[in-house]
Amino acid sequence: PAGWAGGQPVAGALMGAGDVIAQQLVERRGLHGHHSQRTLKMTAIGFCFVGPVVGGWYRILDRLIPGATKAVAVKKMMLDQGAFAPCFLGCFLAITGVMNGLSVEQNWAKIQQDYVDALLTNYCIWPPVQIANFYFVPLVHRLAVVQCVAIVWNCYLSWKANRL
């Protein structure tokens, strides 16, 4: 659909920006301690995974639950947060572990360590954002809107996924 392809560069750029914020404001690495490779990896994950998967999911969700009422927005949020978010988050953590060179055993241990906390944090942030997104925002702009709201979430995910 028109407008959807623009979500990938936005998702990539905002994942990268979230990592820069995580490194500079949360981890306080400073410019000399900044891990540019990590920022590039997070940008790549945003571009190659987050953008296409979330954009595709929004198209599927619109076909599964058509309409634009408040009740439809709540139904979409419930499916998004109940089915998609848990799977997406697990895949995100696994991909980040692979990109960071973790062995299968190390990656599994890291996922077990971080998954529940990340999912619970997700549930504190995303349900109201998604209801508003599904109710007010046209499909072609949802990924970009979510990624703009997600700059803080991306910072958290980058920090969580890159704590070794």
Which segments are poorly predicted (pLDDT under 50) over 5 or more consecutive residues? Answer: 1-5
Rg of Cα set? 16 Å
* Relative strand content: under 5%
The helix/strand series, from N terminus to C terminus, equals HHHHHHH
Q: What is the helix content?
A: over 70%
Characterize the largest beta sheet: strand count, sense, and whether it forms a barrel. none
Overall pLDDT level: 90
How many individual β-strands? Answer: 0
Shape: globular
Assembly of the depicted chains: single chain
Determine the number of helices (DSSP H or I, runs of at least 4 residues).
7
Write down the domain tally: 1
Distance between the termini: 39 Å
Please give a structural write-up.
The chain has 164 residues and is mainly alpha-helical. The chain has one domain (7-162). The protein has helices at 7-26, 30-33, 36-64, 70-99, 104-136, 139-149, 151-162. Helix 1 (7-26) packs across helix 3, helix 4 runs antiparallel to helix 5 and helix 5 runs antiparallel to helix 7 (151-162). It is globular and about 50 Å long.
List keywords for this structure.
transmembrane helix, channel activity, 164 residues, Mpv17_PMP22, mainly alpha, single chain, globular
Q: Quick gist of this model?
A:
Its main location: membrane. With 164 residues, the protein is an all-alpha fold.
